[in-house]
Design a protein that fits this description.
By secondary structure, this protein is α+β, with helices and mostly antiparallel strands. It folds into two domains: 95 residues, Sandwich (Immunoglobulin-like); 353 residues, no CATH class. It contains eleven helices and 22 strands. It starts with a helix and ends in a 5-residue tail after the last helix.
Length: 490
């Protein structure tokens, strides 16, 4: 028994001794500036990506016993072990591959961009296979809101004293100033496995999910309405209950100051269908399907292409093609990076071209609402898998919009008098949503495997008030940006 206990202690200590979490930064050797979106391969077909600030993290169970390979567009690949990262004080410098290009790339004529894109399209079936694929994924969504204006106006109410009206106005004005001054941001992370049958069908298994949010700064339009309702109830007759009518919508259930309607939001669960819609949409747009973002950008009827340069990625010569709209229905401009040997797209950047925009709804006069999607940009990175085809490695998509909402609230007293008091409020501002999907491993599955996957309806979510290093310490994830690490710190 004692020997078994000693053996257990030895095993535990050995495990703890060799298990470690490492965070390092990748920089340009000459400029010392951070290098974002570099690929860090921990295995032949697995690994992570450096974030926008050049940082990445690794978790290893065997200390410094394995090598990693770092690759980035325009830089020489570098292979080193965990021990070498420590020796370099967790800063890894990459060298540009410009000199190497001069030695190997000699041409007396400019390559034809349209011919390269035509080759890309002709090689799609050889280079990509998205049917029956399994993706080990880490997903992060970052939401921002910036309120430009927030105005409340109380309609006259003869049954409410002027003193209480003044107090209510003061409270509502303070609420407006607080919301406008607040830096509103929240983060949602989850890790799991996405199984894709085809472009329309997938299943998602969520292993872990977290949300980093300050409930005091949860200022969605509905939350602003709730806070305004709570303030108004304080200055009405608190011995009565009220019905609330908002805009053109029906009268809601009765509310009172004591019914707990405005208590802090409880911890919730994520609907798997919502998480799957987000991740499947990102994966689909990075694949070659009719209607996908990538497929549209490679449509020569919609876009003009220009040969820009050559560079290196994963030690392969790569063509750099810029593109912009040829027709008004095309929305994006950016660059496409194409492997010169097999004509596979290995990287793509996109953003709205000039004054182009996405969805636009203007019902300002009819329903008091206006919405314009004025920001859409992203980055797609691809990596070769064990089947010798390419799959998405990292996808970043940022969307932003302008919004305007004019809404009215009417409190109707539950009494014979049916006294009424109303508030009109107008909200105007911008919001932004950034979604990132990191594929840490990819493999093929059979149809029978796919059918056996049982998808849950919901996944528990861990609600966090501040950033904690330990939350994802033992996982391969995206290293958080400084704005996330600072979240919740007074």
């Amino acid at each position: 028994m004692i020997k078994s206990f000693i053996f257990f202690l030895f095993f535990l200590c050995s495990t703890l001794g060799f298990s470690q979490h490492i965070t390092a930064k990748i920089i340009d050797k000459n400029t010392k500036s951070p290098i974002p979106f570099a690929t860090i391969k921990t295995g032949e077909y697995s690994g992570v990506i450096s974030n926008e600030e050049g940082y990445f993290n690794l978790h290893t169970e065997d200390g410094n016993l394995y090598n990693i390979t770092i690759s980035c567009m325009g830089y020489k690949s570098k292979t080193l072990n965990v021990d070498a990262i420590k020796t370099a004080n967790f800063v890894i410098a990459l060298e540009e591959s410009v000199n190497q290009l001069r030695e190997v790339y000699i041409s007396n004529k400019k390559l034809d961009a349209d011919a390269i894109i035509a080759k890309v399209r002709s090689k799609i079936n050889e280079n990509y296979d998205f049917i029956l694929s399994k993706y080990n994924i880490f997903f992060r969504a970052t939401d921002y809101a910036d309120f430009k204006s927030l105005d409340f106006e109380i309609e006259k109410a003869s049954h409410v004293g002027s003193k209480n009206i003044n107090k209510a106005n003061y409270s509502l004005d303070s609420l407006s100033k607080h919301i406008i001054a607040s830096k509103i941001i929240q983060f949602s992370d989850f890790k799991g496995e996405l199984y894709q049958l085809d472009k329309d069908s997938s299943k998602l298994i969520v292993a872990k999910a977290t949300k980093l949010i300050d409930h005091k700064k949860d200022f969605s339009i509905d939350k602003v309405q709730e806070k305004a309702q709570a303030l108004m109830l304080k200055y009405l007759d608190t011995t009565k209950t009220y019905k609330v009518k908002t805009g053109i919508f029906k009268v809601e259930d009765s509310l009172s100051l004591t019914d707990g309607a405005f208590k802090k939001a409880k911890e919730k669960e994520n609907k798997i269908s919502n998480l799957k819609q987000q991740t499947h949409s990102l994966i689909k747009n990075s694949q070659f399907y009719d209607g996908s973002l990538l497929y549209g950008i490679l449509n020569s009827d919609l876009y003009d292409y220009t040969f820009e340069d050559v560079t290196y990625y994963n030690d392969d010569l790569t063509y750099v093609i810029s593109y912009k709209p040829r027709k008004s229905k095309a929305k994006y401009a950016g660059k496409i990076f194409v492997n010169s040997e097999n004509y596979a797209v290995t990287k793509l950047n996109y953003a709205f071209y000039q004054s182009r925009h996405g969805s636009k709804v203007n019902l300002k006069l009819l329903l008091g609402a206006k919405y314009i999607e004025n920001l859409s940009e992203g980055t797609l990175l691809y990596q070769k898998n064990s089947e010798n085809t390419y799959q998405p490695k990292y996808i970043k998509q940022t969307k932003g919009s302008y919004f305007y909402v004019s809404r009215s609230l009417k409190f109707i007293e539950n009494s014979k008098a049916k006294n009424k008091i109303g508030i009109d409020f107008k909200i105007e501002g911008d919001n932004r949503n950034k979604e990132e999907l990191l594929v840490t491993a990819n493999s093929k599955v059979t149809l029978d495997d796919f059918k056996l996957i049982k998808e849950a309806g919901k996944a528990p979510i861990q609600m966090l008030k501040k950033f904690e290093n330990s939350t994802w310490n033992n996982e391969e994830t995206l290293e958080p940006l400084e704005e996330m690490k600072a979240f919740g710190i007074p």
